[in-house]
Amino acid sequence: MSVVVVGNPKPKSRTRAAAELVVEKLTGAAPHHIIDVIDLGAGLLGWGDPKVAEAKDIVKSADLLVVASPTFKGTYTGVLKLFLDQFGAGELGQVTTFPVMLGGSYAHSLAPELTLRPVLVEIGASCPAPSLYLLDSDYETSPELDNWLEVARRYAPA
Ligand SMILES: Cc1cc2nc3c(=O)[nH]c(=O)nc-3n(C[C@H](O)[C@H](O)[C@H](O)COP(=O)(O)O)c2cc1C
């Protein structure tokens, strides 16, 4: 089962579209579940919210997980951090995970590898491929996406 987590204060964003595209290119099918973190609302600000718990269960049952964020101030968003903080250390149980970030320029192209990946690993994600960074202006047609897919496909569960 493939799952997308999108951490963008703006729902239905290009970041979400890019994450869906990545899953389609990796698996040949649309994601089974898309969690647009902003839809979880104020439950993210505390512990034990039922909607957040349901979203966590979906994430934990994934075989393939894409976690996507726009780049804000050189890192992933605070909204995404609120959701990731809901997981305990190792809780993801080594689900195969691909960190993806969109940005306005290449100035922060290492941000997914240096900022998002370590947090995902801390909560138990297995991130076998390099993290993916795409420009918001050309994420659909970028040669970086094709190059990355060649590597990432080796690690996508069948
Ligand atoms: C508050 C804010 C901070 C941003 N900071 C950065 C940044 O540090 N580096 C960068 O490349 N783009 C930055 N951007 C641009 C966004 O990362 C970029 O437009 C994003 O990929 C848009 O994704 P979306 O269309 O899914 O919202 C910023 C945008 C906003 C709104």
UniProtKB/TrEMBL annotation:
Superkingdom to which the source organism belongs: Bacteria
Transmembrane recorded as keyword: no
Entry keyword Protein biosynthesis: no
InterPro entries xrefs: Flavoprotein-like_sf, FMN_Rdtase-like_dom, NAD(P)H-dep_FMN_reductase
Domain NADPH-dependent FMN reductase-like: residue ranges: 3-133
Keywords: Flavoprotein, FMN, Oxidoreductase
Gene Ontology molecular function: oxidoreductase activity
Pfam families: FMN_red
Protein name, UniProt field: NADPH-dependent FMN reductase family protein
Source species: Mycolicibacterium hassiacum (strain DSM 44199 / CIP 105218 / JCM 12690 / 3849)
